[in-house]
Design brief:
- It contains 3 helices and 12 strands.
- With about 300 residues, it is mostly beta strands.
- Strands 1, 2, 3, 4, 5, 6, 7, 8, 9, 10, 11 and 12 form a 12-stranded antiparallel β-sheet that branches.
- Strand 7 and strand 8 form a beta hairpin.
């Protein structure tokens, strides 16, 4: 149900004098015109639910390869780039459909209609140029969804209430960079970042408290992340999801010299109640998302 598009990453050593967390650090995304940056995003999710007397446990592994093709970067650091999802691999086990596995780089049709349906949806997204404008803080001020994809989404939306639309894709792409504070940071300084996306059943918001901890031996600013999740249901939707509890923690290694994230990991735990077709059942989700720069 959820597609998460998140970008971060890279790695370079700084001089010894930069390894002090007591000194202030100016954290900024930095890009050069015509460079290409590649990312690998891996997500593992375990879902448990009880429907009547039946326990349903499901696992999902997803791999997403992304490229950022920088078009231009102005003197003030504002950057225009094309963000492209190069490949999506997904494998799900334990659900009513059994093992569901597909890879967008494999064009062979499956005998499983669920695999074909999901594969078709994701193939509409891969190899598409999403043009975004990003500020040095990581704030994305503009997202242009390609016309070819919009036309495909409109065709898919006919009779499909859960189909992706332009607004949802723009919201997801605006979350593709770690948000940095506008001012230099010193040890234990905290700032916040908020991301929202409208899904079929409602609006999910993740508000993260971010704390600069130290600079490690490789010149990465280590940033602690504590997320807080909330869900506002859509009243008219047939599925009502109520989030009963959530917790999480994460860490970002932001390379100060190169101006991008070297590695990011976020662990989330959620518990919710779902009402659908007159039934009510409880669900828990454990999710780990790791993003790493591809050399």
């Amino acid at each position: 149900m959820f597609i998460r598009v998140t970008a971060v990453l890279t790695f370079l050593a700084l001089s010894t004098q930069s390894h002090s967390a007591s000194a202030q650090q100016d954290l900024r995304w930095k890009f050069r015109a015509q460079e290409t940056i590649k990312y690998n995003v891996q997500q593992k999710m375990q879902t448990k639910m009880k429907i009547g007397d039946t326990d349903v446990n499901q696992s999902m592994d997803q791999i997403m390869d992304m490229s950022w093709h920088v078009q231009s970067s102005s003197a003030n650091g504002d950057t225009v780039m094309n963000q492209v999802v190069d490949r999506i691999f997904m494998k799900m086990e334990g659900g009513p459909a059994g093992v569901v596995e597909f890879d967008t780089s494999d064009n062979v049709k499956s005998e499983n209609p669920i695999v074909n349906s999901m594969g078709e949806m994701f193939r509409q997204i891969v190899n598409q140029n999403f043009q975004v404008t990003m500020k040095p803080t990581g704030a994305i001020t503009d997202v242009q969804v390609p016309d070819q994809l919009l036309n495909a989404l409109r065709r898919s939306a006919a009779g499909n209430a859960g189909a992706l639309d332009e607004k949802t894709l723009q919201q997801m792409m605006k979350q593709s960079a770690v948000m940095l504070p506008p001012q230099p940071v010193s040890a234990r300084m905290t700032w916040s970042s908020q991301q929202s996306v409208q899904l079929g059943f409602g609006t999910m918001t993740i508000k993260s408290e971010m704390t600069f901890m130290e600079v490690d031996a490789e010149g990465n600013a280590i940033i602690k992340v504590v997320p807080e999740i909330s869900v506002v249901p859509r009243p008219e939707h047939p599925i009502r999801m109520t989030l009963t509890s959530s917790s999480g923690q994460g860490e970002v290694a932001f390379n100060i010299a190169q101006g991008r994230v070297a590695k990011s990991e976020l662990d989330l735990d959620m518990a919710m109640t779902i009402e659908s077709n007159g039934q009510t059942f409880n669900q828990t989700i454990k999710q780990v998302t790791t993003m790493t720069l591809v050399p």
